[in-house]
Amino acid sequence: MAFFSLEHSKAAYLTDFILYGVAVSCLTIFLGWSAPFSHPWQMLALLGIGLIAASLIEYLLHRFILHGLQPFRRWHQTHHARPTALIGTPTILSITLIVFFVFSPALLLGDVLRASALTLGLTTGYLFYTITHHATHHWQADSSWLKRRKIQHARHHHLDTHPVFFGVTTSFWDDVFHSNVIERVKIKDSNK
Questions:
Q1: Which H or E run includes 116?
Q2: How far is CA 29 from the centre of its chain?
Q3: Which structural domain, as residue segments, surrounds residue 70?
Q4: Per the CB 3.0–4.6 Å rule, which of 8, 16, 117, 181 could disulfide with 43?
Q5: pTM for this model (two decimals)
Q6: What does each of the 192 residues of the chain score in pLDDT, given as a tens digit?
């Protein structure tokens, strides 16, 4: 079924960028008009928690699901074998995961404004991830930040026997979990 295909047509591939761009815009407008001005810090804190959670989820899913569990590992290996192919998470799957595992629990624990603020942070983080991942494979690096991201991601793609550098948007979690050290891989190899 086309909705669940890993390799997308150009139109389906662009759907994530458009859909999540619209979702971020709509949530921002909704919160701007609806959020009580007496609690702006609470909304900003939830937005920040969503952004941080998005980067941690990106790292954990990439490291432990896409490189650890079948059939996800096999699917992700297709991306490693053909990094410029239009391969990605089906939009219907990512939307479902965000609604059921972020918005719905947040709604049950709070209210629609708090759930929307948390979801806005996570959705913004996911949109940032999709754009960054696309850029690492398809764009010329004009900024030092994108050059670093491209180098880190290229290292990730070319060290298949001992994958490192699972963060796409940031190296922070690679630093925290020590998955950014190529020397450690060399040391392990020399001890065999």
A1: helix 112-138
A2: 23
A3: 2-140
A4: 117
A5: 0.87
A6: 444 556 778 888 888 899 999 999 999 999 999 877 777 888 999 999 999 999 999 999 999 999 999 888 888 888 888 888 888 888 888 999 999 999 999 999 989 999 999 999 999 999 999 999 999 999 998 899 999 999 988 888 887 667 789 999 999 999 999 998 765 544 444 444
